[in-house]
């Protein structure tokens, strides 16, 4: 029972990170119908930025704040400078552009920071927390907390502010949005900025667990895809919940199904993607896309 | 006094096809102008041209200033509101969110709550449905929502694209009654594009008849309504 609980909590912790990255994928997908394959590498690059800021003597939370700010501006700039010129291009062109970004971020990170694996600090205390006979890792609990706070902030932003409302409107109906005076192009750029910010937080939360290196997010991105597919690419809340589910399923499968162990955990995510696409392609909470022909 | 909206030699094209030829029309401050015509005459394109949604040539003046070539988003800020073809409902947002979006470009945000109340008085059904998603409304309700969303901008000019399309006659009459009230009480000028010529002529003070992208007749609505060819082709008697 203790093992079970511990696995569930640590599953929730990594699941929150998958969910955050899935959320950033979904935010961009909903606004622009584009899957941003570079989302993981953008998060990795932001995490390196935080790491080098801390190496220059900044405190964790100051580096954290600077990093999310830079990530936001960076995401915005990528949309304006790189995605905007191709926004009317065929979908395959756009996909190739985001794949190109993935490769660029990956190689530039390797070039600047080298491929040597680096430790990344956790802002949370190191003493384990005991509840009865169950021991929880404080970073796990902290990561869950950070994820939840981030989600609540995003929800409040989209639900209660007029800018958030305008961003939702621009994603749903660009033509009508222009007619009420919303600058749709800027809303999409803001969406990229926010997605990059969420990704940066995910990167900084996962780095203490999987360590820092240029390829750290490649596996996480697949988990994020699994989460978004499971929850539904059209549902931000679903994607996050999908993340928690994937994290827990992955951990439980690794613990209780002996041949999976730690080696085949990533395969669990891929199997999940295939299963969901076969059984319910729109995901648990997604809407099926209906097109008039 | 110059008219509020004036088009001179207005042309528009989709790709290689020219759909508006040398249009000239105007809307007086506080007036209601209607543009009549059959399907494909260029009515919707005319409205789209006025609010910068298609490429145009020629002059459009609003309040004496050139506005042709300006972005739609900027025209909204000058006070031109458009209830578009197909009603433009944000189907995944609630009725109240739809209305709040209408006020997005407003300079004075303070009195939005009061204006919402006033608009709910014009359209009580929207008040009833304000927590419902826009996409769940009926056609007539969505048309009311489109007009209400345009009005909450406090526009000087309201562009209405076929508000009668696909609606029951009673609902159409209700919508036209509200448009008249708004015009009288708030002094909003209206440019109305319609197929339903008899309703439009009764509402408007000035009318233009559009055929394949050209103005073929214009004048006070009462005069245009008396014309034999208009009566035969558009009024059916």
Q: Quick one: how many beta strands of chain A?
A: 2
Q: In percent, how much strand structure appears in the residues of chain A? A: under 5%
Please give the alpha-carbon distance between the first and last residues of chain A: 54 Å
Q: How many domains would you count in the coordinates of chain A? A: 1
> Structural class of the secondary elements of chain A?
mainly alpha
Low-confidence stretches of chain A: none
Helical run tally of chain A: 11
Derived from helix and strand composition plus strand pairing, the structural class of chain B reads alpha/beta
- Helix-strand pattern of chain B: EEEHEEHEHHHHEHEHEEHH
Q: In oligomeric terms, what are we looking at?
A: heterodimer
Tell me the strand order in the biggest sheet of chain B: 6-7-8-3-9-10
Strand portion of chain B: 25-35%
CATH topology of chain B: Rossmann fold
Low-confidence stretches of chain B: none
Biggest β-sheet description of chain B: 6 strands, mixed
Task: Give the rounded overall mean pLDDT of chain B.
Answer: 91
Report on the structure:
The complex is a heterodimer of chains A (293) and B (237). By secondary structure, chain A is mostly helical. Chain A has helices spanning 2-32, 39-55, 60-83, 91-113, 138-160, 162-172, 174-179, 184-210, 216-231, 236-256, 265-279, and strands at residues 129-131, 134-136. In chain A, helix 5 (138-160) runs antiparallel to helix 8. The mean pLDDT of chain A is 91. In chain B, helix 3 (95-102) runs parallel beside helix 6 (139-151). Chain B has one domain (5-235): Rossmann fold (3-Layer(aba) Sandwich). In chain B, strand 7, helix 7 and strand 8 (189-194) form a beta-alpha-beta unit. The model of chain B has no long low-confidence stretch (mean pLDDT 91). With 237 residues, chain B is α/β, with parallel strands linked by helices. Chain B is globular, with a radius of gyration of 17 Å. At the A-B interface, helix 6 and helix 7 of A face helix 2 and helix 3 of B.
